[in-house]
């Protein structure tokens, strides 16, 4: 069973070191793990931080349960990683420090204070994967010393300078009063000593302080590291640091004026405690009450060897050294980290240390807009989202009035204070604090009760919003609607005093992944929306509303006597200016304009007018709504909402034949924007993907879409779910370079339910009544037959296993695995199940399975460096439902597919190889962790592929390199073509009948190429000339649409190259000629859409009626 480990070993590398690890910014690189609990223990792995704490292992984050095998968790899902890197990029140091030598002086350092005895923190398990439960036998553990119990404080001090330190005095204090003094005769360079003080424990907070060289008798490197003062009841943590990092900090001046890791680390904790004290809000008038201190610092190569009885801790690890290079990458990484942060604060570290106290990532309650597809009253997908405004250090809440992302929010302060006085071990338990009764008081736009309105409540799941409401009903005569308490499988009260009881959110996930409501209210054709986080319910509870919480919501729905809503609002977006207009409403004396900027979660009054037009200059994508006001001051409801996209560089356009919509690529924001057939903006459908800088895309007849961006290609299916990625890694020459155009052609990607035995298939098992696989029978075969996705399948349960020889059946350098799985368990199942494994589990392992709510694929050569893990969150996995799983591997890439969609991808330094051992279906290599599933149609290929991906074709033009490349969906480079007739190829279009048109910016022409549909291209002729810098071209199979960029026109040719029309400007209400049309496409009705780059607008030419010169064939008799 695979182990989950930190992606880059130091698990907060996503946050604090995103800039340093630029070469790994696009993908997670090389997770690590092990094949089984036994291997984990043999290798000495302990769990680094992951999702939430497992106590008993030093408070690291990760979910565990008594029913689960030992699983070292540590890998955030990919979406978390990307969010964390974006979240903290602004907090990185602007420059890194240069190494310097410390002065040739002594340096007395008080490294840390420790306390004995120590007692356990809470040891929490999650037996059902969700509900926190104290580990049996620990319920009565003692967590703090008894009042009056003897306590020993120990000061750990050293001379960290280069010269001996002579006689100096020291002092212990409690609450500012001396309790013990003495002298030290001297310390040699590098000498460590400990000094102790005895005290009787008191539960109240006191302050213990130790100071060395209190008379300043020693001239030394720094005076700032001679003393420490800490709260006696502070939570205490265990720190492990790799020797490379420890040594690297001796090369850089830190923010305490010295050159040691301990002093830098103490400065981080001091900053954290300072932010605790500064977190003063109405919810926390004394700030965060807790204080945190270091009780242990150990230098060790085994940084995951955590001590028990601590309130968490941290491990400063390094990525393993690459055995294939002469450089020591581990040491280089340590130097980079020290150079980046020695003189400042690693806010990412403080973020992670706060997790050790049981606090969650607040961005888990955020919602991605392209995952909110609920239709609005106009029939458009809502594409609204929620995100914090003044985000705090934990990625949410509100830091106003500080408005500083390095502060804790009022919510974080209040939540942490709920556990003040308790040891740690629980994670997110404060989320359980929900009032017993929760009522929605809905008002119309005048403040009167909104009676008889329909209420629908939708609940998020992992930053997405399912389209089925979890709560629905009608408001009563007083506009009231009670949110019902949804039942639980089990209620629990934590040792820290938080009770999970029936509540509107149902089973509350302690990470917060289901902690957001979108509430919709509608009446008489009007509707409004409200985001409501679980955080709001918590704050109400903590404010004393433990019994009843009333949410008063003044909506934008009108009273019955208000004017009708405006029937239409039209708008234009050009040069960054939005111009709105509407028809005068009978009885209206004025109008109000409302705006909601991305993420579209809140409407703001923008202005009032008596006119029927309004212009505004937004700074981002914004929605606008207009209401009419009558003489009595009554306000109508919203008319149709105008969605204005903030165009900066519209670079390409296309028409979705199957949907009837338009798609526009904006290179500046990387957005792919959907528009209705009449040109109305729907919104960005690919918000979660980084497509910034993309220049071109290609739309296939089946609705698939390929997007070209510099050295990468991303392919989406017709639901805009990712199906392909071809990118750059640091360890290979990129298959594409400076992509300027793309054409998606060939076959449509499918995951067949029955695979043919083609030349690339090395192993193929249909399981139709026998266990034969490509002529081979299993060495060990125990399984039962059942109905399959095609014919029959094998059912693998306890004690069953299929093991085949690997000889001739797998190529480790590159290949593909396809298989169909029908689980006997739902997606909520967190047991370990292995579907496929290959290797001996000692020097090579390839494994695919399910664990902890994820599908995974894992490769490991067991050399400590070459290893990778891919993850896919399980959704909609129910017993009896078939799912396709595909894995492709290449010398530098590793990809996981689930149900035909690319779930995860990692770049590899080199192919991960070793002893292939056996191929095992339905268990791991040791015959453990049965799939508990039916398995069918297992195919292993000798080339990287999924389904028929090897027959999908991507033609990519590289304008600056004067060439066109042919690749398949996995990025296998099939051909590179260049020819003297084509100088600078850019846009590509398929004309059918084996012809491809290419825009040549070198000589202002469109060239025709013959293409055999596989990999052979050849120059055929010049289609048309006389153009100026033609960009992206298109064709509907009847005509070729060419934007003449430099001449400011769009030209339409037939397939013989005859000019049929020339357009100099739009006729859709936009004024003025085209500035620099970068792309144009034709819809089924004959309309043209044009990306007018220079004027920052997307416009239309309707049926060629205006601003056109039409050209007809001359008929000669």
Describe this entry's structure for a reader.
By secondary structure, this protein is mainly β. 8% of the residues lie in helices and 35% in strands. The protein contains 9 helices and 69 strands. A hairpin with a 4-residue loop joins strand 31 and strand 32.
Characteristic terms for this protein:
1117 residues; mainly beta; Immunoglobulin-like; eight-stranded antiparallel β-sheet; seven-stranded antiparallel β-sheet; 9 helices; disordered N terminus; disordered C terminus
List low-pLDDT spans. 1-92, 1110-1117
Number of helical regions: 9
In CATH, what is the class of the domain at 653-749 and 950-1110? Mainly Beta
Query: Rg, please?
Result: 32 Å
CATH architecture of the domain at 653-749 and 950-1110: 6 Propeller
What is the share of helical residues? Answer: under 10%
CATH topology of the domain at 653-749 and 950-1110: Neuraminidase
Our measurement of the CA-to-CA distance between the termini, rounded to an integer number of angstroms, reads 82 Å
Number of strands: 69
What value does the average pLDDT take? 89
Helix/sheet category: mainly beta
- Tell me the fraction of residues in β-strands, as a range: 35-45%
Largest sheet: 8 strands, antiparallel
Shape: globular
Q: CATH superfamily assignment of the domain at 653-749 and 950-1110? A: TolB, C-terminal domain
